[in-house]
Amino acid sequence: MNATTNFDAIIKRQRRFYATGQTKDVEFRLKKLRRLDWWLKNNDMAVGQALKADLNKPSFEAYGTETGVVIDDLRHVMRGLRQWARPELAFAINLKNFPSYGKIYPQPYGISLIMSPWNYPFMLTVVPLIAAVAAGNCAVVKPSAYAPATSALIAKMCAEVFHPAHVCVVQGGRAENQGLLEQKFDKIFFTGSTEVGRVVMQAAAKNLTPVTLELGGKSPCVVDKSANIKLAAKRIVWGKFLNAGQTCVAPDYILVHSSIKDKLMFELSAAIVRQFGIEPMQESYPRIVNQKHFDRLLGLANGENIAFGGDSDLETLQIEPTLIDRPAWDSPVMSEEIFGPLLPVLTYDTPSQAARMINARPKPLAFYLFANNPALEKFYFKHVSFGGGCVNDTVVHLSVPALPFGGVGDSGMGSYHGKAGFDAFSHKRSVLHKSKLIDIPLRYAPYSKFAEMAVKLITNL
Hints:
Layout: H1 3-19, H2 26-55, H3 59-85, E1 88-90, E2 100-108, E3 111-115, H4 123-134, E4 138-142, H5 148-161, E5 167-169, H6 174-181, E6 187-191, H7 194-206, E7 211-214, E8 220-223, H8 229-241, E9 253-257, H9 261-276, H10 291-301, E10 306-308, E11 312-313, E12 318-319, E13 322-325, E14 342-348, H11 351-359, E15 366-370, H12 374-383, E16 388-391, E17 405-406, E18 412-413, E19 415-416, H13 418-424, E20 426-434, H14 449-460
Parallel strand pairs: 3-4, 3-6, 4-5, 6-7, 8-9, 8-15, 9-14, 13-14, 15-16
Antiparallel strand pairs: 1-2, 2-20, 7-18, 10-13, 11-12, 17-19
């Protein structure tokens, strides 16, 4: 049996299960989500071990940025699901349809494909899966082959929580990705690079399949002269070097006001030492996922002015937190998303100049501003387009289930987390309920001058 036949069988099995109507029952969805909650509570150590095997993540970081985020989102969804799934009454029906009322019915798309990346391989797989199940879909889950231990654990989890016709995990690499994208799904949810996102969208277009793309980009971090510099440095270092910089919303580069640049560089260096020690490349420090990405990162740093750090270890695939002082805008390190522990620091003189620098590049997934100036917040939010972000912190907006998370332009389309995730996997079906008691004859042919005047009058009321 070839790969395509296998995929055909998976999709047919899921369509048969979806046709039974079980997933459209809200109590069925809640039952499965509660079972997933039980599994997470009883297997958090196994998740940590898988993440340690794949990326050398310390247990605190594994729970805080993966398992804990999943549990927060899951419980937020379980609390709100019954309300979200109810039909929504639409008011302000126009006079042309009086008397009537409208309702909006959230409906599952059907069979969803979820393709996830390797950098947060558990969280970025399970959070969209929660949304798909909550919205009433069946799902085919494709974890990343670059995180094999976590991929195997996700397959085990889904087998223990869901019927295989409800949620199915496909493991493997590019051949499996290609085989799945050749199938007809009702929804595709992809997290990964912009380059692969374009491939996914092209495949989806063949079947007119709706997509949510969670991509990346060069997320800027602006530090104004009004900022608390020591606190800014501490929070930037934490957000940037979390998971060795392999975070889609990590600050990709700093734009600091020229008057405080030297002070910020000192505080960044001090914060790295406080958080990671004099020799960061220890057992508890995450590694780069593979040698290909390790070599790519060394190539980006090659020839740049290293202000702090810069050491690497080929045997452990670790690169220590590294500050790069004022690279050229057209240099390799400023030409692509870094996705590693290299942090370029550049300067600006006015907010308008900083905004122009940011806007000269594709729209980023995240934007961070450190300032004690509400007027500056308004300025940047008005003049810079980005997916989401923080004021006076980095990355943590990703952990709030009530905040929709997603990109714009090259950094993605659509959003999820909490209610936004439920909406991402739901079609909002609108229905007008019309009364039979009144049937105004003006709309029927033959049309008269009076009818035309009456319609214009009603329209302009």
